[in-house]
Design goal:
- The complex is a heterodimer of chains A (260) and B (366).
- Chain A is an alpha/beta fold and 260 residues long.
- Chain A has helices spanning 19-27, 46-53, 63-81, 119-128, 149-152, 174-177, 208-216, and strands spanning 2-8, 33-41, 84-93, 102-107, 132-135, 139-140, 146-147, 163-165, 167-168, 171-172, 183-184, 197-202, 220-232, 235-241, 249-250.
- Chain A is globular.
- Chain B has 366 residues and is of the alpha/beta class.
- In chain B, 46% of the residues lie in helices and 20% in strands.
- In chain B, the strands form 2 sheets. Chain B has a 9-stranded mixed beta sheet, sandwiched between helices. In chain B, strands 10-11 form a two-stranded antiparallel ribbon.
- In chain B, helix 2 (43-51) runs parallel beside helix 3 and helix 11 runs antiparallel to helix 12.
- The chains are: A alpha/beta (260), B alpha/beta (366).
- At the A-B interface, helix 1 and helix 3 of A face helix 8 of B.
Chain lengths: 260, 366
Amino acid sequence: MILSDFHIHSTFSDGKLTIPEIVDFYGSRGFGSIAVTDHLCEQDSFMGRAAKYLGRSLTLGTFPFYMELLKSEAERAWKTYRMVVLPGVEITKNSFSRYDTTHIVALGIQGWVSPDLSIEKTLEAIHEQDALAVAAHPLLPGKVEKPYKIWDLREEFATGFDAWEISYGSHLLKSVSGSNFPKLGSSDFHKQHHINSWKTFVDTVREPHAILKAIQEQELRFQFYQEEPVDNNFGLSWGRSFGPESQPLPVGSLASSSVT
Amino acid sequence: MGAWRVLRSPKPYSSPNAIDEESAWHFPGVSILKPLRGAEPNLFENLETFFKIDYPRFEIVFCIKDVDDPAVGVVTALIKNYPNVHIQMHLGSSHNLPNPKVDNLMQGYENARFDLLWISDSNVFVEPSVIHDLVPYIRDESVGMVTSSVSGHKAKGFAGKLEAFTLNTFYTRWIHIANFMGHPTVLGKAMMFRKSVLDRIGGLKALGSFLAEDYVAGKVIGLLGLKVSVSQTTAQQYIGRCTFKNHWKRHLRWSTIRKYQIPTVFYFEPWVSAIPSSLALFFSLKILGLNASSPTVAALALFFIIDFLIDLRQSRKINLIAPLLWPIRELLYLSQWLMVVMTETVEWRNQQIKVGSESLIELPTR
């Protein structure tokens, strides 16, 4: 089983770590595969332009460098840690209305995916690249989970998405985890402490296509990953531990899991 | 056009492995990449200063697109005069990149002997100690690129002096303000970096779709988690004669590029310029019912003194006509800024080019 995280942001959008730092961060913790999925905001909308001006989005200008760096870092990650790095983006359609905001993670992309297409066309464009489309955090967590539009339209998009994220940060989305839709556990990692979140174990070999296929076929288990701060002579560092409430759970039993 | 190459190594370098570690650390080999086009004024004298560099391990790599370019003759004459300097000369280009400077440099980039590269424009001249001055910056492993602010020298005529004054003051301030605001800013007239670092994001070729390849280089170095350092040594640019029209068009183009490079800094610019900030001060004090004239004059005087001192530092001489150049530059800057707010294109080599995100000229291959 490969410990994996398929939703990670770098300094190419709004993450705090550079891609080389992300590789070392995850590689040194024994992860077997990760996907760097920086925001690719709509290029034409007001919200998208604002994100672009603030340097919070990939652009046509930075995208080629992003892909080149992911390629060279994937080689280094494999040589150094035997870790697979998948290229990805998070197509980000932000709206003034929370409900209309839609984020789609594309895993294993080969090139540019226009963020300005409709949701249907975006899903088609992702699949044309033999990449996977994952519905990112489709609900807002809380006592009563608040759905985004994409979750309310889940039946319509059932065949378009290859998986639905079961968590938003460290919060388990019970509506998703209890559903019959294909699932994926990811951290939406922006900074180091976001490592404390849900992760996916993939039951396959360490090879990009095999990993993508395993996600499609749901050869997965999910587990909450928790690190505790450890005080040592050099200051505060992080030690890895899995709490008793976060034992590995098969997909079918996720709904009954309790997460603090 | 077929490319051909002249390689002249009078005393072949031993392989880097043969050099003891201490020497290699102190004197890492440097390949100086020189893009040339046409016999610019003072070209021979500018280039000659590079042949006089005092450093144990360097080569000069000339890149010239056209075989018939008069710069070929200038370089050939210098090679004869300085037979002990290691030279490469690459003629022609086969990459067809939208940015002609990057396109011109590609063969030199691919064939450079050393990992440490220093791209230096044709109108720059240097002191013999220049590499000794720059290398310590890049030896810091957290630094990915070293750049220099530009200082204008040997200006002739009023427009030439205005050009030098603008480079020495406005652009020196701008590079430091942009870096201070967290935007690593590189000037293409002088940029030193490791080829192995740039190759991680696609090499020099990846910069060929941008009008401002220098700014983009600095940005991607930052995305790698490395710093851009601004050296104390300036890139000394020969100005010579310059027409007012050329001065105006050049700075209009640069202003447009700045707008697309770092819009947040561009729109902030007027508030660190003399006239808008002094006017804001004047009206603020008026609204508050306070004496506005004296503080406004004091603010203008302070701006002038700062620019005068920066010019003195950059040009290393007292500029007696600075009191005349300064208000003209301020008014021109303001006019250009206002024009650029409404502009989406730049005139470049007699073409109107639409500038895109981060100064992208053409969309990258999808």
